[in-house]
Amino acid sequence: MDYLVQKVSYLKGLAEGLGIEESSKEGKMLLHIVDTLEDFADVLADTIEDQMDLEEYVNFIDEDLADIEEDIYGEEYYEDDFDFDFEDCCDEEDCFCNFDEEEEEED
Question: pTM for this one?
Answer without folding.
Answer: 0.55
